[in-house]
Amino acid sequence: MVDLSNLRSWEDVVELLVPELQRGGIYWEDYAVPGGTFRENMQVKPGQHLLPDDHSDTKLRWNAKKAETSKVLDSSDG
Question: Could you tell me which of 58, 59, 35, 39 has the C-alpha nearest to residue 49?
Fold first, then answer.
């Protein structure tokens, strides 16, 4: 979908278009994890809002404690 339409925002799509598609049976209404995150619903695993620990991209996860520790160590070098 291109942003060239008269919709004010993507919220309009969610609030106006999706309910109409659901009424027509074109868009689903049932979620594996109602109220869950996108990842929880895609993986059908309640509580799994992050990548699983055995996923290859887990090493790319930002770690606030590790970042703060390396920041402190870097500042003590100079």
Answer: 39
Report the predicted TM-score, pTM, of the whole model to 2 decimal places: 0.40
Closest by CA position to 49, among listed 57, 41, 58, 40: 40
CA distance 41 to 53: 18
* CB-side neighbour CA atoms (13 Å) of 64: 0
Q: Identify residue 19 by its one-letter amino acid code.
A: P
Tally the residues of the chain. Answer: 78
Q: Report how far residue 33's alpha carbon sits from residue 45's, in angstroms, rounded to the nearest whole number.
A: 7
* Each residue's pLDDT tens digit, 26-38: 888 888 888 888 8
